[in-house]
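Exercise (ungraded).
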Amino acid sequence: MGEIATEEFIRQKFAEYYSEHSQSIQPPTSIDRREFGFILFKERIMVRHKGFKDVKEMRRFIESIVPSDAYYSAAYYGRPEEEMERKGWIGADLFFDIDADHLQTPCRTEHDYWICENCRNTGRGKRPARCPNCGGERLREEAWPCEKCLEAAKTEALKLVDFLLSDFGFQERDVDVYFSGHRGYHVHVEGGEVSQLDQMARREIVDYIQGVGLKPRLHGFFKRRKLAETARPELNDPGWRGRLARGVYDFFATRQMRSSEETGEAEGLWEAVIKMGAQTFSDAMKFAVERHAVTVDTVVTTDIHRLMRLPGTLHGKTGLRVVRVPVERLGGFDPLKEAVAFRRGTLVVDVDEAYRFRLGETTFGPYQRERVELPMAAAVLLLCKRVASPSS
Amino acid sequence: MLVSKIDLAKYPFTPEAIRYVEGLGLRVEDLANPDYVSILERAEQRIEEAVLSGVVRWRGTPDYEVEVLSFPASMMLVSVAKDSFLKRRYALAEARKVYSLLREEDEEKLAEVASASFGWKIRLAHTTIGRPYDFAIKFVHFLKHAPSFHDERWKLVNRAMVEGEVYLNKDELARLVEEEVRTRIERRIETSPQIELQPPLSERINRIMQLLAGRREAIRAEELPREAVSAAYPPCIKKLYDALLTKQHLSHMGRFTLTSFLLNVGIGPERLVKLYTSTTDFDERLTRYQVEHIAGKRGSRTKYTPPNCATLKTHGLCPGPDELCETIRHSLTYYRRKLWMIRRGKGTKEGG
């Protein structure tokens, strides 16, 4: 089956899903103040500046147009349907986007691949400048919802939540975490004064969680200087001060230089710190910051007009759902199980090539030019990734 | 609550002071009345002090009523003058007065002025986190002004923050209040209704404008650095440079742009420190540190170049391009080309 037929098939499955499950599309708060945007299957264009007066209208619209991807604005507007300059910005939720694409996971070279838009030739790893087969230059890069990558993204999300709760003082009920439906997590903070933060303030928040511009000496870490007892950073100190202390501790641990070996018996972390040479000191600080900093897409947080994925809708690149994860369950959350949308039936597909993947409890693949019968969710994932087509 | 008149006089921007003034029910026309001449005298003096020394003096005299009432009168005069340089300079001078007064207050009073006037959530917190702190302020309120301050100790990532509160000492809280006062005064001047003033009042404005004109020229006549050819500066740098010489408030980005540009065209750090400390009340030690940092003599040892045109535009520092600007994307490129043009006698001496 060709490209168009595959797309029509996916659209059909999405349509079935929305007609049955539109109730699970969660409306954002203040729905009538939000802008909505949708990517349409055939045209592949974003329809923006859409507004709804209530959740019923929103769900009915999604059921009828069947978008491949659905978004809403982090911002609140007086007139969400007007063009940007005339919308009347009122405020915006605080959003963080954690995407495995921004993390340097070692498995990426194994599972990332590219597709030539011209001849459908594919290859592993980073895309070349030209297709080796047809010489075409339109090569699309695709990343895989790989378990290791998703685990790395979750670790970032957990670190971020810790920053939001212990440093920024948000309550668990203020913080919403969503699996994006593909390779990451969205973390969303709503409420009162946060919505009024301007771009500069949001930039400061991003710099804080990323450890950008951090000066160790402003947290009590000096090269070779003895400080009074009260001025010394301790492992359980709050904020970056404590993170740096713990990071330095781990630095010694990973380098197998317990402080006692380096500096003599019965001396603690602090003695080790002040005895470090300049290079070791700067290595230790760098290590500590990198270990605790969270990698987020900085543009998403500082852009106060950004559109975010609508919870409960499907991701066009996977057919998985955008699902909310309660903060207390994040540690044990399994996106490849809980985000599965198509739970019934099977489909026979012709797979070009597919990396090993897991959905639910089952591991599939790898596949290489073969015809297989798969549970619907696994089949839709491969179709969405454009590495398979329904067999005719 | 600020109950005493002395407090109202010191902090005439507070809601209590504003209510007090409104309670008196004075109208603009009343100001022409000879009985109020002392208010107008003081109002004019406030502006004079702002123009001449960059800070409004706290007189400490017992005539607190004149002190309270002359503040809105000053703002009215400044707003009628419709001069943005005067507006900025006046707002900054009033704010500086508040800063120096607040530093002398006890902590309760300082916290009260900040929380009652601006709705900031602040509490007294005598805590030691590495160093002793006096206050804890909700981070959203800290972020209102801290990002516009240059020094890295104002970066959130370098602060002690616990459960949503940023810890501050007295001087730092006074500095945040100063900035809030400055922006509020600017906004009040901008939004105050435009009125036509009758002679006794309009004469005062004329006097202020004359004083200002003389001062502007005096500042501009100051000797320019010899090594660099200022005629070749692009419009953005000219504007920042003039702003510095006329003691206008420069944003963090503005100061960084100007400093890195001047360092790159051959003005030495020593000279720049002198330029900054003679035109502003910047602390010399801190200024030296910052200038040397940008010069690459400290910290990361990176010698910084000014941001490119796109970034300057983003930060509102591009006053609008001239002809040469259209062909370049960086202020230093502009400078080199313009210099070449001037030396070849091709360019006008006063471009932009």
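Further reading is listed at the end of the chapter. For now, observe: Chain A has a mean pLDDT of 90. The interface with chain B takes residues 166-170, 193-194, 196-197, 200-201, 203-205, 207-208, 211-215, 218-220, 230-233, 237-241 of chain A (CB under 8 Å).
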